[in-house]
Amino acid sequence: MGDVPSSDHTDPSAWLGIVRRRVAGWLAEGVGPGWVVAVSGGGDSVAMLLALHALRDELGLRLSVAHLDHNVRGEAAREDARFVADLAASLGLPFDLGSWRPTRPGHFEADARAARLAWLAGVARARGASAVAVGHTRDDQAETVLHRIVRGTGPRGLAGIPARRPLAAGVDLVRPLLDVSRRAIRDELARLGHAYREDATNSDARFTRARIRHDLIPKLEADYNPEAVAAIARLGELAAAERRLLEALLAPLAAAVIRSVDADRIAFDRRAAAGLAGPSAVEIVRRAWREAGWPEGSMTARRWRRLAAGLIAGEGVDHLGGGVALRAGGDVLILERPGASPPSAAEVVPVRLEAPGEVAVPWACASFRAEVDPVGDGDEVVDRDRIAFPLIVRTPTPGERFDPLGMSGKRQRLVEFLRLRGVPREGRGLAPVVADRGGIVWVVGHRIADRVRTTTGTTTRLHLGWRPDPGGDLGR
């Protein structure tokens, strides 16, 4: 669907028209009529629900409402849930309520987002829905672009939030309000006299997003440009459009340079790569890297440039992080991850993990540890009293299921969970898990089971961690 021009309309019919065109375009592109509407109770999500409900009959939408309680605001959170449940009932819509609890100090924003999206994807699958709608506005777009700038982003990060993206197999995440300002939404709710909830954490200065919203943006508007939000959001739109154009222009080059992409190696045509310019080489190698499903967390801008330079020169490059290296041979360049030859069945032996204790697991090329209330944090924290000892480091069993944190105890096939996490098919059967007598406790590098999460009643915390051996790989 083409971009919808952004403007700060306060006429409700004007911004409802923007939403109508967005939604109608997505339906024409093949998004199904079944939509889960994520409603926190705040003004943005409430206005989104009212707008979609107003368009429901005209566009043939089948709506349900979902709300996830993050268990950090006590009675206020429970009142939010009751408010959203009552709103759904008043509109005659089905309602799903989920619950999640944070387990890692200092990681709330990222963990809450991951848990919320995983839970919403599960609700959509259960309801047979094709889309999950969330209430991000033009202001959220500007805040996201600013957040990325202050953290240090490249041109790719300036593209901001996409209006539509895949969330899970057969389910899209859509943002119908992305071209509507928060002010227009609040004006419309005031005109209707419609209540909504205010989340105090949105003003909590401990969170970067809140500081950008309540400190940085007001200063920009007051001292530099009263239309700063619109200008920054427009930058995001232009960056996204240029990104799409660049990818289209690079597609023929990429097809000539990239010979094959597998789970543990990527082959490039050495002669075709020699004719690349530096920036295009970076984009092509990143495209192949993402297609292979390799994690990008350790790849700094400097490493991408080193890799691109090696590609153009036809020379090998070592020390790219995680044991990845570029090898030159004949008319090809091979980018390899360690562990290209999977361990044999005889080598994959379950290993007992004492608590407290640490153990090396040769077939996983890593060491694992369990510590009771240590001074330093582990990768994950679980409730020790919910563990049915002993702990075992092993690989998945055929057909195994577990209850990922953030899905309110709902069970999911482990292979499907790993697929949605971007683990290549070849690596799913060897993905290390820490398990007890009750099943999976931790899918290493991904998520713990909901059944062992910490709660307010937790008395003893068990910190789980892993450390890759030099050159090792867990296939993440």
CA-to-CA gap between the ends?
33 Å
Which strand order spans the largest sheet, edge to edge or round the barrel? 3-2-1-4-6-5
The CATH topology annotation of the largest domain reads as: Rossmann fold
- Structural class, by secondary structure, is alpha+beta
Task: Tell me the β content.
Answer: 15-25%
Q: What count of structural domains?
A: 3
| CATH homologous superfamily designation of the largest domain | HUPs
| Largest sheet report | 6 strands, mixed
- Helicity, in percent? 25-40%
Question: Keyphrases for this structure?
Answer:
476 residues; 39% helix; 3 domains; alpha+beta; Phenylalanyl-tRNA Synthetase, Chain B, domain 3; Rossmann fold
Structure description:
The two termini are 33 Å apart. The chain is α+β, with helices and mostly antiparallel strands and 476 residues long. The N terminus and C terminus are likely disordered. It contains 13 helices and 21 strands. A six-stranded mixed beta sheet has the order 3-2-1-4-6-5, sandwiched between helices. Helix 5 crosses helix 8 and helix 8 crosses helix 10. The protein folds into three domains: 213 residues, HUPs (Rossmann fold, 3-Layer(aba) Sandwich); 89 residues, no CATH class; 118 residues, Phenylalanyl-trna Synthetase, Chain B, domain 3 (Phenylalanyl-tRNA Synthetase, Chain B, domain 3, 3-Layer(bba) Sandwich). The radius of gyration is 24 Å and the shape is globular.
